[in-house]
Amino acid sequence: MAGTPEGATPVGSLGVGYNSFLSSARSQVVDVKYSDTGHSAESNVYVCTSTEDLYRALGIKAEIAVGNPWGSFKSKMDFASGLQSHSLTTTILVIASKIISGLTVSSVGFIDPSPISAIDLFNTGGDSYVSSIQLGGQYIASYNFVAHDETSYQQLTASVSANFKGVTSQFEASFETSITNIQKTANVESSFNQKAVGWSKTPFPSADDFVKFVLDFNNVPLDGPEVIDFETESYRTVKGSPDFKQIDAYRTAYLNPTFQGLGYSDNLLQAKTYLPLINGIAKIYGYYDMQSVDDNLTTFPDRLLDMISQIAKWLQIVDKDPTDPNIPPPDIQEKFLKLPTAQYGITSGEKAGGNGGDPFRDVISRDIEWGIYPLTLQFQGGSNLDSITTTYAYRDGEHAGFIRKHGGDGGKSPEIIDLGLAGNVMTYLGAKWGELIYKVTTATSLNPTKVTYPTNNNGDHDTVWQFPKNSTFIGWGGQSG
User: Fold this and answer.
1) Which H or E element spans position 478?
2) How far is CA 452 from CA 186, 212, 225, 442, in A?
3) Mean pLDDT lowest for which of 71-85, 216-230, 241-255?
4) Contact, 197 vs 60, CB < 8 A?
């Protein structure tokens, strides 16, 4: 085997050999002449709705992302992995780039003596050589917008489309206004992150200086310039090359440099990216015993794991002898290379009670992602229901629960409903009311006998809150005071 992903060597110079299957530099076996495009600078804005979009904007090739990343690519992958990403997120990415050297091969020839066989050439110099390389630095900034339900995400999408034309655009002085517009019009959370590549001595800009810093990034000194981008070319194009047709075919299948469809490296990146996201969605559904709502949440992970295993095995066999024409391709089933939509949110029930008091809402959509549920309900009252005290907990094991009380301090002999037992959920919830709520009636899956509290005959109206299919009671909203 020519190498392993764990031993990947960074690309550092023009003409060096490259193993695409391991994303690793190899020995240089060609002499090259080159031209230098010199210094350049640009600042762009990218609208990203997936991890693949982030990698593409950051210039991270799929074969590097799924291998053992190095240099600036590892730094940028670490940055991307720190951004919250799922099917309801959008990231506005700003990348200011300063290239101090851009080298491109103008002519190439093998170092004498020319390689005798394709396998010897591959074992020494990989499947290709570095045909262009860019050295420089970048300033990367991201505004990460996270929605927690489909309605909020649609608002976010509409606002982003209204403020940024297309997925890629040139950075302009009006950028901050566009971000502010999104923050005002979309009911989502947002966070801001920054990353330096190729420089370390200049401090990050303040909020007031952000736009000027991006527009003037060309003036920032690069105290540690790095390889920002590079391209490779098959040895098949070099005069005197041995029969490299089979190796080139495997290289094309993995990288797909013709950009017609996806290569195996793209498939592998998709599978590795989608797998934790799907498992995250399944985990949320599992908090509420609703995995059966979407069969894809159980079938997709197994299929993706199988594809990951098949591509990994294919890579090992190809790297051992890429001249073998009989290596079976991995079974790529594209129907599984997609992300099931996470469909969850809060549905409010019918109002019961008078019009007084201040509005409240104990839980929000984000809490569902953490597995919120009512641990106990305590009803206090006498001639009417005077207060409801709810202890909330989370099933994710990472967030602390809380208690919410609504109402006054009157009443006695409270009724406590325990929903903390496994499998115990609310199956019936009703109220008798007029200007006040006079009593509530509950039943749970483990205690199906209806319990009414307080026991009185007051109230002119009856409300029974129906639980739609594939839903469960998670908390209260209303007015109190």
Assistant:
1) strand 477-480
2) 42, 65, 72, 7
3) 71-85
4) no
Cβ-in-10-Å burial (0-12, 13-18, 19+) of 334 comes to: exposed
Decide: helix, strand or coil at residue 177: helix
Q: What does residue 185 show for φ and ψ, rounded to 5 degrees? A: -95, -20
Helices 264-287 & 296-320 angle (0-180, nearest 10)? 150
Residue with tokens 């200011």: 96
The label of the residue with tokens 């202890």 reads: 391
Q: Cβ of 112: how many Cβ atoms within 10 Å?
A: 7
Cα–Cα distances in angstroms (integers) from residue 169 to residues 54, 166, 186, 443, in the given order: 15, 7, 21, 56
22-59 pLDDT, tens digit each: 999 999 999 999 999 889 999 999 999 988 899 999 99
For 395-452, how does the pLDDT look when each residue is reduced to its tens digit (9 = 90+)? Answer: 999 999 999 999 988 887 788 999 988 788 999 999 999 888 999 999 999 999 999 9
pTM across the whole model:
0.86
Place of tokens 């325990």: 418
